[in-house]
Write a structure and sequence with these properties.
Layout (H helix, E strand, L loop, with lengths): L2 E11 L3 H4 L2 H14 L4 E8 L5 E7 L2 E8 L4 E9 L5 H11 L4 E11 L9
Antiparallel strand pairs: 1-5, 1-6, 2-3, 3-4, 4-5
Helix pairs in contact: 2-3
Length: 123
């Protein structure tokens, strides 16, 4: 069955705390993950929380990559949502997991927009 998108939702545990609390490091990891899959970056927004934690999103033409970190727990939550067949979300997941030095992770893929009908023409 055809789907419009693939959504990988991941939890990364026992990550490098120094990376998790540094907004520039997180932005670089996420940007490089998008680039590694040849995604087309549209916009980038990241924010550092006080006293700790980072949230951010890379908007790509094919959808988005998002992250939320909890350095105090060595934890990061990651969403990688891609549309089309060119960008491989699992490649981005492996890249992020490796760069954050996650010791363990849980991830699942959800197909989004599962359709049984032909595309409609827009007027």
């Amino acid at each position: 069955m055809k789907s419009l998108g693939r959504h990988v939702m991941a939890e990364l545990y026992n990550c490098d705390v120094k990376i998790l609390q540094d907004v520039r490091s997180i932005e670089n990891v996420m940007r490089e993950a998008a680039e590694s899959t040849k995604a087309h970056i549209i916009d980038v927004v990241f924010h550092k929380f006080n006293p700790h934690g980072v949230s951010g999103v890379i908007v790509i033409a094919e959808s988005h990559l998002a992250i939320h970190t909890w350095p105090e727990y060595g934890f990061a939550s990651v969403d990688i949502y891609t549309c089309g067949n060119e960008v491989k979300p699992w490649k981005a997941f492996k890249f992020i997991s490796r760069r954050l030095r996650a010791k363990t992770s849980n991830a699942l893929e959800m197909r989004r927009g599962i359709l049984n009908i032909p595309a409609r023409r827009l007027k």
